[in-house]
Amino acid sequence: MPFQNLYVQQRIEKAAKLKELGFNPYRNDSSRNTSISKFINVNSDVEQMENKRAESRSYTVAGRIKLYRLMGKASFLKIEDESGMLQVYVARDNLPEGFYNEIKKLMEVGDIIEVEGYPFVTQQGELSLHVNELKVLTKAISPLPEKYHGITDKEARYRQRYLDLIMNSEVKKTFIVRSKVISLIRRFFEEKGFLEVETPMMHPIAGGANAKPFVTHHNALGIDRYLRIAPELYLKRLIVGGFEAVFEINRNFRNEGMDATHNPEFTSIEFYWAYKTYRDLIEITKELFEYLFEHLDRPKKLPYGELEIDFDKFTEIGLVDSLSAIGGVPAAIVNDKAKIIAYLKERNFSVNEKMNLGQLQAELFDEFVEAKLINPTFITDYPVEISPLARRSDANPEVTERFELFIAGKEIANAFSELNDPVDQYERFKSQIDAKECGDDEAHAMDEDYVTALSYGMAPTAGEGIGIDRLVMMLTNQHSIRDVLLFPAMKPLPSTDQSENKIQEEDK
RNA sequence: GUCUUGUUAGCUCAGCUGGUAGAGCAUCUCACUUUUAAUGAGGAUGCCGUUGGUUCGAAUCCAACACAGGACACCA
Q: Nearest nt to A482, CA vs C1'?
């Protein structure tokens, strides 16, 4: 049974008393006519007035009580709406007779009230609203966290994000930035002539990435469905179909571990661009960042924890070149399997000697280079062995036309000129099946329908995916993905409600 | 998955080498008509995460479990 808590009981009592007095504690007749920030802007002139008040003006504002200072026959309240916080002055003699004494103990911090009145400036110099009329719109029966320390417990903040949002205004700002980033990305690609599309989230075959999918069941068809791990293969079908520039911003689902950079569902943008190559993607990616910084009004030298990221300094380097130039690995060994293995062993890294040259180079990159890539860096020319979906470079068939973008030591984007040879694609799927049978449960499944699509001819195309959550982390100086997700995945708590347990039992 | 830290009042936190739980805010009563975390006086508030064990006695020691934070590993 909820609401057993003493403080909740006291507040339920107050709601009942309001009802007795004829005040609905959950009324629906708000007549708010301005926001708090507008009130403050419009009345900034009141301070210059002779008696520091404008009794002829009238505003109705509403908000949640954050502070309540009751002083006998008058009181000050701070109320907050989405736009800001406002001080409100309630004096007994300015209200209908008896009203103030009736209501002053029935409202409290957490309640949402509406007040009508005129602007004035207090002796302490704060623009406030002098109340002529007051009503409780919504009674809160659970008390808010403490007014000074707020709520700091991470678990409570993630599970009860609404409390976090009520108490911590910076949190709200982070999510406003997140919303803007998504909106700007959408606008950027629309302005470039891209078409936003929606492809299925429930896939018969989970493809487009190396990841374990979630499985669900479609009762009517009697078949299992996979929550998508990437929209890639559907978006490329659309290129086959004749759309030349498409993008999709939405969720992917991966049935893997959770940590500071991984949530089971995460948001990405993937975009595919016909008649273009990965070189064009590098240019459009730089442009996108320009666009974001311009419209977000952020400094190009952005602090990130201890680091400072300079978004005016995009650089580009080949993966193998980066090993010596950035990672400090001797240039003489980076193209020699045996020497790399010896080098890694000397430094006490566990080495799988069955790895091919490309995999070993990737290993060196992960160990010695990745963390050092603070300013935005395009790493290009990925070995063919670790790029199964990317097109080989015509100049050097050992590497692919691919890049990954790293910022603050983390991968932010992955892009390449797409493989559009259907026979080659079929062979690569087949070798993935072999890998799957050898125990690699993240290997791609054969997608014959996709191969069929390619067989009708896909124009030369370049495609890119950008992790929105990680991008927002960087732009908001957050170091956990949970701080840029409104409702991060959390394990359910054991239910204390027996009826709920029963339902779960019956379902089994 | 491994290691590590945490879980005490609505919130933020004390509670030492075991002796039956405390502060601030909030809440309740009283005073107070320009306060700024308002102030002053008085009162109430606890499955000390859960389950076991050791002990005359456990918030405290031990074990298992649950949840969370952090680090590492795995993964892209």
A: B69
Answer yes or no: is A270 CB < 7 A from strand B: no
Residue ranges of chain A with pLDDT lower than 70? 1, 435-442, 495-508
Query: Is A76 within 8 Å of A69 (Cβ atoms)?
Result: yes
Q: Please write the tens of the pLDDT for every residue from A293-306.
A: 999 988 999 999 88
Q: Do A100 and A180 belong together in one domain?
A: no
Which of residues A112, A144, A176 is at a domain's end? A144
Tens digit of each residue's pLDDT (9 = 90 or more) over A151-191: 999 999 999 999 999 999 999 999 999 999 999 999 999 99
Residue A437 sits in which domain range?
167-314+375-483
A181, A275, A387, A469 from A280: Cα distances, Å:
22, 10, 19, 24
Pick from A441, A380, A442: which is nearest to A416 by CA? A380
Q: Coil, strand or helix: which one is A147?
A: coil
Whether any strand B atom is under 7 angstroms from the Cβ of A432: the reply reads: no
Closest alpha carbon to A90 in A76, A111, A78, A110: A76
In this prediction, the answer to ipTM > 0.95 reads: no
The amino acid that residue A27 corresponds to is R
CA nearest A468: which of A145, A188, A280, A244? A188
Contact, A51 CB vs strand B, < 7 Å:
no
Strand B contact at CB of residue A255, distance < 7 A: no
Is A289 in contact with A184 (CB distance < 8 Å)?
A: no
Residues A14 and A138 in one domain: yes
H or E stretch at A88: strand A84-91
* A98-134: pLDDT as tens digits: 999 999 999 999 999 999 999 999 999 999 999 999 9
Question: Does residue A360 sit within a domain?
Answer: no
Asked if residue A153 is part of any domain, the answer here is no
Query: Is the same domain home to A137 and A194?
Result: no
* Number of domains, chain A: 2
